[in-house]
Amino acid sequence: MMTFLRSQSQAVLIIILVVLGGSFIFYGTGNVLTSSSAGGDDYGRIDGQSLSVAELSNAVRLTRDGLIMAGRSQDLAQPGVDAQVAEAAWVQLLTLHEADRLHIQISDSFRRTAPTARNFTRSR
């Protein structure tokens, strides 16, 4: 086996480079071959409906803005808070989607006092 590799080292090197090069070309392009959307900006799905990166970014921004308006801007300076903000935004999206699916009206006062916003950094 080793004599074969030594004698064909140039061919083996080319094969390895082609395989590695091909993997780097497709890395980061998402699921290009099986994806039905050309944009590829879907972040995930909630109950079968696509959630775009823009919708999630908007939810994170609204969660962050809500904390600032509630006078909790100092909490945003703590380490690891970005993951908590993203989780709170995700929970908010799931709650709103489930309420919409069940035809439940969520009042603005509940949204302001929801546990994900009220006990944001103190609960962890």
Briefly summarize what is shown.
By secondary structure, the protein is mainly alpha-helical. It contains six helices and two strands, in the order H-H-E-E-H-H-H-H. A two-stranded antiparallel sheet has the order 1-2.
Tell me the number of strands: 2
The radius of gyration computed from the alpha-carbon positions, rounded to a whole number of angstroms, is 24 Å
Outline type: elongated
User: Which class best fits the helix and strand makeup?
Assistant: mainly alpha
Low-confidence residue ranges: none
In whole angstroms, the N-to-C terminal distance is: 57 Å
Order of helices and strands: HHEEHHHH
The share of residues in helices is 55-70%
Number of helices: 6
* Average pLDDT: 76
Strand order of the largest sheet: 1-2
Our count of domains comes out at: 2
Q: Approximately how much beta-strand content do the residues carry?
A: 5-15%
Main beta sheet: 2 strands, antiparallel
What does this structure look like?
With 124 residues, the protein is mostly helical. The protein has 2 domains: 1-32; 42-118, no CATH class. The protein has helices at residues 2-7, 9-26, 53-69, 81-101, 108-113, 115-118; strands spanning 42-46, 49-52. It has a two-stranded antiparallel sheet. The relative contact order is 0.09. The mean pLDDT is 76.
Main traits of this protein?
single chain, 124 residues, mainly alpha, 2 domains, two-stranded antiparallel sheet, 6 helices, 2 strands, 58% helix, elongated
